[in-house]
């Protein structure tokens, strides 16, 4: 019989936020894989738990090498508890490789839900939360960072990022450059801790604030791009939207009507854009309206 892999969420700041099941799983585990064994020791002391499980380190530097060892323990029937420094394992933290290895071997994977910096930051940001994307950490190199931001510049959903405090001003400045200086955002610092701070405002203003120096764990929440109005849609974008619908199986007539309705434009205007693109060699023959 195979064992069980338990992914345990840990507090992102205040240790009293630890879920009750965390203490139970610390006691029940045969093997605990911890991102930082010293932090694990401080956590067990705060919870008043004395675990007899074998404890091994499992962090970015040894994740690839240690995963096979942990997978073998699971295959042999061990109950393995995976904890990271804060939040849920595998979410911008070690864990994905072990989960994939466990699933491949038919090992049961379960979780102890716990605090989440992503959801906490979203909840307090004051920005739309009905739809969002979690983008994790941006690349450290400026050029790669700008490229990644450009990929989501038109994303309508709210965006959530993690960032190191010493890179925060550069990241906010890059966001202001790509997303626009006035794009609303929130910088959430030291969530659930004594010096928790949520700074809200336009990206350019936040970048100026961060240039003075910021400390602590950082989560950035950025409002999604606004839905373009008719004045923001040029002929090329109208043609592109029609082609996307056609490639999805719609007839051109219906595609033109749908694009026009969504943009608040007359069908004739969209039709004329498609015909012009065709005549210029940039589109397929236009159907009648």
What does this structure look like?
The protein has 289 residues and is an alpha/beta fold. Helix content is 41%, strand content 18%. The protein is built from eleven helices and ten strands. The protein has helices spanning 20-28, 37-47, 63-75, 96-104, 117-125, 142-151, 168-179, 203-210, 235-247, 252-263, 267-279; strands at residues 4-8, 31-34, 54-57, 79-83, 108-112, 132-137, 158-163, 184-189, 197-202, 218-222. Strands 3-2-4-1-5 form a five-stranded parallel β-sheet, with helices on both faces. Strands 6-7-10-8-9 form a five-stranded mixed β-sheet, sandwiched between helices. β6, α6 and β7 (158-163) form a beta-alpha-beta unit. α6 (142-151) crosses α7, α9 (235-247) crosses α11 (267-279) and α10 (252-263) crosses α11 (267-279). The longest helix has 13 residues, at 63-75. It is globular. It starts with a strand and ends in a 10-residue tail after the last helix. Residues 285-289 have low confidence and may be disordered.
Strand content: 15-25%
Q: How much helicity do the residues have?
A: 40-55%
Structural class: alpha/beta
- The order of strands across the largest sheet is 3-2-4-1-5
* Distance between the first and last residues' Cα: 65 Å
- Round the Cα radius of gyration to an integer and report it: 25 Å
Number of β-strand runs: 10
Order of helices and strands: EHEHEHEHEHEHEHEEHEHHH
- Morphology: globular
Please report the number of helical segments. 11
Sheet with the most strands? Answer: 5 strands, parallel
* Low-confidence segments: 285-289
Q: What's the pLDDT, averaged over the residues?
A: 92
How would you name the oligomeric state of the polypeptide chains in this document? single chain
């Amino acid at each position: 019989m195979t064992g069980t892999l338990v992914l345990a969420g840990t507090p992102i700041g205040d240790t009293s936020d630890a879920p009750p099941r965390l203490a139970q799983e610390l006691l029940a585990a045969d093997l605990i894989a911890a991102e930082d064994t010293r932090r694990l020791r401080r956590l067990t002391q705060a919870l008043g738990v004395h675990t007899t499980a074998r404890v091994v380190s499992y962090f970015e530097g040894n994740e690839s090498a240690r995963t096979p060892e942990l997978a073998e323990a699971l295959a042999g029937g061990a109950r393995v508890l995976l904890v990271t420094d804060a939040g849920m394992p595998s979410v911008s933290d070690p864990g994905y490789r072990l989960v994939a290895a466990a699933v491949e071997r038919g090992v049961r994977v379960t979780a102890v839900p716990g605090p989440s910096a992503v959801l906490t930051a979203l909840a307090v940001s004051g920005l739309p939360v009905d739809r969002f994307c979690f983008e994790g950490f941006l690349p450290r190199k400026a050029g790669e960072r700008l490229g990644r931001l450009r990929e989501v510049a038109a994303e309508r959903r709210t965006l959530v990022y993690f960032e190191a405090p010493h890179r925060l001003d550069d990241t906010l400045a890059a966001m202001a450059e790509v997303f626009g200086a006035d794009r609303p955002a929130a910088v959430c610092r030291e969530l659930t801790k004594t010096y928790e701070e949520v700074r809200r405002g336009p990206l350019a203003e936040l970048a100026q604030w961060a240039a003075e120096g910021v400390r602590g764990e950082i989560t950035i929440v950025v409002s999604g791009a606004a839905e373009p109005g008719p004045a923001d849609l040029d002929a090329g974008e109208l043609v592109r939207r029609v082609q996307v619908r056609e490639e999805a199986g719609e007839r051109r007539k219906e595609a033109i009507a749908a694009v026009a309705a969504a943009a608040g434009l007359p069908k004739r205007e969209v039709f004329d854009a498609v015909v012009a693109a065709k005549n210029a060699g940039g589109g397929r023959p236009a159907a009648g309206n």
